[in-house]
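note to self: dont lose this again. the chain is below, predicted strucutre after it. 219 aa total, dont forget to put it in the shared folder this time
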Amino acid sequence: MAIDTRDRILDVAERMFGERGFPATSLRDITTEAGVNVASVNYHFGSKEALLAEVLERRLKPINERRLELLDAVEARAGDGPPELEAVVRAFLSPPFHSQRVWGEKGPGFLRLVGRIHSETNEEFRATFVKQFDAVFQRFTAALQRALPNLDDADVSWRMLFMVGSMAFTMSWGPTLVSRESGAARDPEDVLESLVLYAAAGMAAPVPAGVPAMAATGR
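---
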């Protein structure tokens, strides 16, 4: 029964945080919708911030664990040599796409919630959110550096940011594109594979020449 109550609170909180935003959703709103009392939230989570953290971890932890499992396999195949670039990229990108299918109709709501995190929570919470990815980013950064020895640490970090942005935008806006553009429908695996190839090509792109300071500032 306690597990049912906890999951019900998480389901309602995820939906309401995504629909209304974190600041505009009170614990009273959540408990009323979930049919529980505020004491239940305090017992299971302790605070609204802790509840939000648990909502995120419930979805993200299995994704990150799967990413590391896939990367382990890629590195095992590579042995002492550099891992295959596309395989590393695929190990990073495929788990969230496959999880999105499992989430079903709850997927868009969760993605909407993630999109709100950076604009509606304070810097301390955003740091807590990013910390969930520490092990993943460290492992994948190291693997990408071995696959692309011509890139320095900063290049790899920036290109990983570009890859994450492309992934998030594709997952969030893909269904909208399909609904608005005739002929845009694609098999989900085809979309994923296209994104893998796109991201791998971007990761392997030549390092740009330095931009003069005056050009960078528009002066």
